[in-house]
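Ticket 4471: requesting a sanity check on a complex prediction with coenzyme A. Repro inputs:
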Amino acid sequence: MEFSAEYEVHAAAIANLFTASFTASEGSDEGELIGALARRLMEETPSEHLRVFTAWNNGELDGAIIFSRLTFKGDKRVVFVLGPVAVATKRQRQNIGQRLIAHGLRVLQQEGVDFAATYGDPRFYERVGFSTITEKDVPAPFPLQHPEGWLGQFLNNATKTPLQGPSRCVTAFDDPIFW
Ligand SMILES: CC(C)(COP(=O)(O)OP(=O)(O)OC[C@H]1O[C@@H](n2cnc3c(N)ncnc32)[C@H](O)[C@@H]1OP(=O)(O)O)[C@@H](O)C(=O)NCCC(=O)NCCS
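Returned structure tokens:
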């Protein structure tokens, strides 16, 4: 398996992977929504606020994950939020998702990012170092529909104190439907 952080040239394939993978697991409405989100993240986000990591096997796209910046008004620490995450349907349950996320977190850590957040199923994300956080300690950009899915981890030796909000997400995520 090879990892890549280049996304402009692969943007269409990456968006299609999100559409197909979420359609298979959650239906076509969700597939279209997440595919469109991935496309907008790649098209509209300034590159310094976006990190996309992909996993490849013999030229085939096996998985893709997207991190985008969360900015905290009262806090200088650098925070990225992970999502969406998808592995090609026929390649799921082969550890690709976990390896790709671990790779992405390692790169962010090397860049000096202080905190990674995500919003999803704790049973999966706990396997790659995330644990439950509260909206009080890490303010989310919108009130969360599923606060039990709000997760995070400190990278590096950032001061492990609550982050001072309010927080703001990138424009593609600026819709309560995603939160
Ligand atoms: C979720 C997803 C990214 C996981 O990638 P993957 O490569 O299949 O996962 P891995 O092989 O690294 O890890 C598999 C383990 O994670 C767990 N897991 C996988 N998907 C899970 C899910 N949706 N919820 C909870 N646990 C999950 C499984 O229990 C599995 O462990 P097991 O085989 O011992 O039971 C992939 O299944 C996927 O693309 N799903 C559709 C899109 C999606 O739901 N994205 C995440 C939204 S939060």
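Notes from triage: The longest strand covers residues 60-72. Leaving this open until the requester confirms.
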